[in-house]
Amino acid sequence: MVPRGRPRDTQVDERVLRIAAALLLERGYTGLSIDEVAEQAGVAKTTLYRRWPAKDHLAVAVVARLQADDEITDTGDIRADLVNYLEKIAAGLNRMRAAGHREGPSAGTVGELVAAAARHEDIGRLTRKQYAERNTLALALIEAARVRGELRADLDAEPLFDQLAGALYYRVMITGAPVDRAYVERLVSSALERNLTCP
Amino acid sequence: MVPRGRPRDTQVDERVLRIAAALLLERGYTGLSIDEVAEQAGVAKTTLYRRWPAKDHLAVAVVARLQADDEITDTGDIRADLVNYLEKIAAGLNRMRAAGHREGPSAGTVGELVAAAARHEDIGRLTRKQYAERNTLALALIEAARVRGELRADLDAEPLFDQLAGALYYRVMITGAPVDRAYVERLVSSALERNLTCP
DNA sequence: CCATTTACGAAACTGGAGTTGCGCAATTCA
DNA sequence: TGAATTGCGCAACTCCAGTTTCGTAAATGG
């Protein structure tokens, strides 16, 4: 069925998301101003609010788009695959800067996004679903490694991935400690090497 | 040295913190309104702002007070000690409810607190210091267990505690999965039992 | 062509955090 | 006692995210 009234300007979505992403990454969550996005995109605020009912929705849409290319791959080497995937998550976390702290931690923006998901039930459902999918894929990766004998037969996969992903978020948001490649490898070693089957 | 002018009403701090804690736990971060706290405490807003320069500072002070009695103890049984301590952390995380979601996750408030710490450099310094202390104590606990032979000699303690604490925060904030006693025990088992020295 | 439907833009409005100015109260020091 | 200092309450103010209203534009269907 063909939609009735005046069609939406399809260029607006793309342009707004691009501008919003730039603002979010450069200046953090509070630096993402609806007025400024509207002005830079050359549209009225109402046009933005028709597409995203609140600033929170726009911000989440921006982040979802940035995360879209975080792929998980199974090469048969569980250690390398985990390091690779956790690196992508870490890179995503490190990309966001807090407003006025270009060198600083991305903690603020990540925290704001968590808060946004809690403020709006629809965002919460959406993001939880996305993270559930990610979780399912990661658990399948671990499970496959367990089945083919790379990991202990009685391994409990769920808390294992919670620990890996959680350690990254914990450092970024809570302790402010760096999350670089060296740490990711150390983390995977700590969590995994002693889970490997013994020769 | 004796302070000069009119002394502060010491009852105000106590009363405000109690009221603010009730509001924060019941209605979440956004439900914590400065105007409402001032009204319920029977003081003017300026009196609050003289003590806490922003709502963020007040909220952080409330949480710090709630966490003050999270003690870490070393009984010589590393597994029990970790379960015990992580239970306290989990209880603190579970106490906070998001505004309008009494049954819901505490994710929102925790996220707001993270964001608050990022917004103000002074809060960030303070909370990072507090978490660094907590981290030091936990690492000492693990280290002691390692030295006395409960844990593997070549254990890397830092990522281990990141994993344990991180898994709790990750579930509360990101996936929304429950964090109850059963999970904490499962988590410690997953992270620790295979770190124990072999007989 | 004309009624209907939906999109758009401009501007005014709302609500809450945070700020400021001012008069008064309480305390110290000379 | 009196000047200086600091706390308090009241009220008006700024600022900005978000909302609402209304007039206009672009499309469809009869």
UniProtKB/TrEMBL annotation, chains A, B:
Keyword Transcription regulation carried by entry: yes
The record's InterPro entries line, in alphabetical order, gives: DNA-bd_HTH_TetR-type_CS (IPR023772), Homeodomain-like_sf (IPR009057), HTH-type_TetR-like_transc_reg (IPR050109), HTH_TetR (IPR001647), Tet_transcr_reg_TetR-rel_C_sf (IPR036271), TetR_C (IPR011075)
| DNA-binding region(s), chain positions | 33-52
Look up keyword Transcription and say if it applies. Answer: yes
Which intervals hold domain HTH tetR-type? Answer: 10-70
Q: Which UniProt keywords apply?
A: DNA-binding, Transcription, Transcription regulation
Gene Ontology MF terms in the entry = DNA-binding transcription factor activity; transcription cis-regulatory region binding
What top-level branch of life does the organism fall under? Answer: Bacteria
Q: What is this protein called?
A: DNA-binding transcriptional regulator, AcrR family
Organism source for this protein? Nonomuraea wenchangensis
